[in-house]
Amino acid sequence: MNPLLKLALEMGPLVVFFLSNSQFGIFAATMVFMAATAVSLAISYAINRTIPTMPLVTGVFVMIFGGLTIWLQNETFIKVKPTIVNMLFASILTFGLMTGRLFLKMVLDSAMALTDTGWTIMTRAWIGFFVVLAILNEIVWRSVSTDAWVTFKVFGIMPLTLVFSIALVPVITKHAIELPETKKD
Hints:
Layout: H1 3-24, H2 26-48, H3 53-72, H4 76-98, H5 103-108, H6 116-143, H7 146-155, H8 157-167, H9 169-174
């Protein structure tokens, strides 16, 4: 998939959530977020005939916690969703390490080839990062207004994730596996 389209499909629902919240409030924004997430997943499926694991899991949680937010008229549900999703990802990766399975490798192997040591380092780093994001989300949603939390969710989490990903480039470079080149006729 085109990287810009992939970014738009991943960021689009969050941007729509932010804009809707600023105009209509958290409950309307949550409904729009749910719809935008469903559209994003549908477009991803239409293009690839598959939905990547992380967006799918996140989408399921958006539907569950967004639905609870709307049904119970309680914004706490949509606010704790990032905490639960990040802890779920950290737990799954931790379980994988403990059982000798590198789930990150299974998910990202088509994007890059690393040694098992590289995948282990990456997995540990992502576990730590997911835990930090969960803690940050808990601190922010409990200490600032809903509008400030939405702004943090959109304009704080994504830049942090980008910086963290860039910080992992040396690990990727050091542990990359050289794939044999295919002959061109």
